[in-house]
Specification:
Length: about 850
């Protein structure tokens, strides 16, 4: 009896403790840096009833600025899909002896000229120089030693050749050794070598396992070779093995990465039918791949429910994924709410027996924290916030160029005793390039190259001044020469140093033995498309050349190619801009192919976009598109944006553009400012400005971040119609929102008055708005209108150091300028001045129609 009384008392004390803790609603310190960021909270759905989620304003690489994605997502997926043994848990690992120098010399001789044809076993037996190698491979445990050594020195192709040669000699490798080699290749993301190795292991062993097939499935996903659910299950059925929970998690990640939400939900249902109920890790995998679809209310509810029963590492991934989705949608209040949940104390729940805690080969996976009892291990306040959370915030702030709050986030990281990692260094390189602190970014790269003096000696070619200390934190010792660091470094170097700087970076990568990947190629292609503006034929031939070298084309390369073709078609159909001689160029009546709408294949990699036969690019593009089609690649948001713009600008069919937009929404993908902007162009192209304005209003209601490009589309539409007053009113609304005008916006406003035959007012607009972009020189003020327009447009590609938003004083000044311009223009047309009601000083102004003012929702 006393024991039961004591047990009940302990339960009551525990319940009271939890009740008191829940009543203390506290915010994580990170919330303080998230709340003041300028953003617009998500609002109601705009286009369809399905569109009940928030909308992010991400930058699609082939359409506008490069989309900055969280680079640590790959590491999070790897951690979720496969538990890895921590380095501290590995005890007593014996150091293997190094192979004899003469054996390594034979291998180096074979691979030194990079042969296209590797020698066979018969060739080795006929060569006296290969006798030492064959003799060594016949000794016990020598073949695995040589393979491990070659893997450790990053000679992956050579290691696989040695493995196959040793097997032909008669050496039998264990299934565990094949798994060790595959894991080593996966750590270095050599997925194209994982595929043949899994096939080789199956042939050598005479059977396959779920473990090997899971690796094969993940390799197919990483090289963008997507399988349907039935195709994947047939692969396991042919091997006479049963899919595991990890199999279904891989299939969910594969379908979400292929932008196929319905197929991912079908995999979840199939997993339940197979006896695997969804676990917290299942929802973590879903959230990691859910970024193209936005954070829906149901997904958030399920994720928070799974958070209650998730272990510590899975709960951290769920928190980070929710924060990332909120930041994608610029939902600051949602991010604050998630961070406040992460700061609440919680008890780590017991392990769910349904989770992936057992490998397929029967070896239990050791996890962080297994040394203590999970049911009694309490998680301290803020333990769910780790370095990945700070990296997500730093990447978001780097995209906005917000140095002040980035430094505050770093200070909070120090105060929380959270050590930065290599992804923190990548985020800082991106941030310092965004704020033009190039020397600080080079300091971080130099710290990563401290083990490669010859590579670090090349950095002064990029403007590195090692004698000047960094002005911002660089966290020495955290950066490593990884492909993620170099891809970010290349993106910044191309902006500041151009292609000459790219040569230097590629030379550094060769010295550090870091090979380029698909992201590197996509970054370079996107830069060439936006800056050098090559003809589409040159880009297509470059991609074809990569295919002949064995590189499969990716969706990003396809997007750059289609964007170049669309740009050329757009110039032919409707030339951009306006000239002094020809007023405004009229649209060219160029017939285009109009397939049946019911036959449009929106799931095609190009989203059904068909370039005109007049350009004769279809034959050149066919092998590239066929490669993507054969791998099951579906259209994504970028392809839909290009399709909508093609329907809008080239075909001039607003209804078809709206149908393409609606199809994307029906598939669950969230539209961003590029999709709404393309739809607005469809209506402005036919002169339907009321519908274009309604689309922009819908975008604002849906939480899309409206920028200067969106307003420029409206101003250009009014300018084509010669409605200078409406163009000026739209410009004034843009300024009232705090958006700083750029060269295209001011140029469009100038063209509106020029189209209305108010040439003096056009000159006045250009002179008054010029200081918003660059200082106005005296010689320009005395030039003709034509010379002024040519000089002003040349400023478009000059990098501006002005802040992205207007101050309150600048807004008042610009609104006064626009009002003064309209007053003078009305007087020049002969309209009488009207006195404003309630004007105490007797000023005469033109009464403007009341325009709705859109204010940002205040965050908590």
């Amino acid at each position: 009896m006393p024991w039961r009384v004591g047990r009940d008392l302990r339960h009551l004390c525990s319940a009271a403790h939890h009740l008191l803790e829940r009543s203390r609603h506290s915010l994580h310190p990170l919330c303080l840096f998230t709340k003041p960021i300028h953003a617009r909270a998500s609002g109601r759905a705009a286009v369809a009833s399905k569109l009940s989620h928030s909308h992010a304003a991400t930058r699609d690489p082939a359409i506008g600025d490069t989309e900055i994605s969280y680079k640590g997502q790959v590491d999070l997926e790897s951690m979720l899909l496969r538990w890895k043994k921590p380095c501290a848990e590995i005890r007593g690992t014996p150091v293997e002896p190094k192979p004899p120098p003469e054996v390594l010399a034979v291998v180096d001789t074979i691979f030194s000229p990079k042969p296209t044809r590797l020698p066979t076993l018969q060739d080795l037996r006929e060569s006296p120089a290969s006798a030492e190698l064959l003799k060594y491979l016949r000794l016990p445990q020598c073949a695995p030693t040589l393979v491990r050594h070659l893997l450790g020195t990053h000679q992956f192709r050579c290691a696989l050749w040695v493995l196959r040669t040793a097997k032909e000699i008669g050496y039998n490798f264990s299934p565990k050794f094949y798994g060790e080699v595959i894991e080593k290749l996966a750590d270095h993301r050599k997925w194209r070598l994982v595929l043949p190795l899994t096939k080789t292991a199956q042939e050598h062993l005479g059977y396959t396992t779920t473990y090997l097939l899971n690796w094969r499935l993940q390799a197919l996903m990483e090289i963008q070779h997507f399988l349907s659910l039935q195709e994947a299950l047939d692969m396991y059925a042919q091997g006479n093995v049963r899919p595991s929970r990890l199999t279904y998690h891989l299939l969910i990640a594969m379908q979400l990465r292929n932008h196929h939400l319905d197929a991912a939900l079908a995999v979840v249902r199939a997993m339940e039918s197979a006896g695997f109920r969804p676990s917290p890790r299942t929802w973590a995998v879903i959230l990691l791949g859910y970024r193209p679809f936005g954070l829906s209310a149901s997904a958030k509810s399920h994720a928070l429910t799974a958070l209650q029963t998730a272990d510590r590492s899975t709960a951290t991934v769920i928190i980070n994924s929710l924060v990332q989705l909120c930041l994608d949608a610029h939902d600051m209040s949602g991010a604050v709410e998630i961070l406040s949940i992460a700061s609440q104390p919680r008890d780590d729940p017991p392990l769910d027996p349904g989770e992936d805690t057992i490998r397929e080969d029967g070896v239990s996976a050791t996890r962080v924290g297994d040394a203590t009892t999970p049911t009694t291990m309490a998680v301290s306040r803020g333990a769910l916030v780790d370095v990945s959370t700070y990296n997500i915030l730093l990447n978001y702030l780097a995209r906005q160029g917000d140095l002040v709050r980035s430094m505050q986030t770093l200070d909070e990281m120090r105060n929380s005793n959270i050590l930065p990692d290599d992804q923190t260094a990548v985020a800082l390189v991106r941030l310092y390039h965004a704020i033009d602190s190039v020397n600080d970014a080079l300091h971080i790269v130099s710290d990563a190259l401290k083990e490669f003096p010859s590579a670090a000696a090349l950095l002064p070619r990029l403007g590195f001044q090692p004698t000047i200390p960094p002005t911002h934190p660089i966290f020495s010792g955290t950066a490593r020469p990884t492909i993620s660091l170099f891809n970010t470094f290349i993106a910044g170097t191309l902006v500041h140093s151009g292609l000459s700087g790219l040569k230097t970076v590629l030379h550094i990568m060769r010295i550090t033995a870091v090979q380029v990947d698909n992201s590197t190629l996509g970054t370079v292609m996107s830069y060439l498309h936006h800056h050098d503006r090559p003809r589409p034929r040159e880009l297509i031939r470059a991609i074809r050349l990569l295919m002949s070298a064995g590189c499969a084309p990716t969706t990003r390369l396809l997007h750059v190619m289609l964007a170049a073709v669309l740009r050329e078609e757009r110039v032919i159909v409707r030339p951009r801009g306006w000239t002094i001689e020809s007023d405004w160029p009229e649209a060219v009546d160029w017939p285009t192919d109009n397939p049946q709408r019911d036959g449009d294949n929106y799931s095609h990699p190009t989203a059904g976009l068909q370039p005109s036969r007049r350009l004769r690019y279809r034959a050149l593009m066919r092998p590239i598109i066929q490669s993507l089609t054969d791998r099951g690649v579906r259209s994504d948001r970028v392809a839909y944006a290009l399709r909508i713009k093609h329907d809008a600008v080239v075909k001039r069919d607003p209804e078809m553009a709206l149908a393409s937009f609606q199809r994307m929404v029906d598939l669950g993908m969230r539209p961003n400012e590029y999709h709404y902007g393309a739809l607005m162009e469809a209506y402005t192209a036919v002169g339907d400005m009321s519908r274009a304005t309604k689309v922009m209003q819908d975008a604002m209601d849906a939480g899309v971040d409206i920028n200067v490009k969106t307003y420029t589309i409206l101003i250009t539409g009014y300018a084509r119609l010669g409605q200078a007053r409406d163009a000026a009113e739209t410009f004034r609304r843009m300024v009232a929102e705090g958006i700083r005008p750029d060269v295209p916006a001011i140029d469009a406003l100038t063209s509106a008055f020029f189209r209305a035959k108010a040439y003096g007012m056009a000159r006045r607009v250009l002179l008054q708005m010029w200081p918003q972009v660059a200082p106005l020189s005296d010689d320009i003020a005395e030039a003709s209108l034509r010379e002024m327009v040519v000089a002003f447009r040349a400023l478009h590609h000059v990098k501006s150091h002005a802040p992205p938003r207007l101050s309150s004083r600048e807004q008042r000044m610009l609104r006064w300028m626009i009002r003064d311009i309209l007053i003078r223009w009305k007087v020049s047309l002969g309209y009488p001045k009207k006195e404003e009601k309630g004007n105490r000083r007797g000023r005469t102004v033109v009464p403007f129609k009341r325009t709705p003012k859109y204010t940002r929702a205040k965050t908590r």
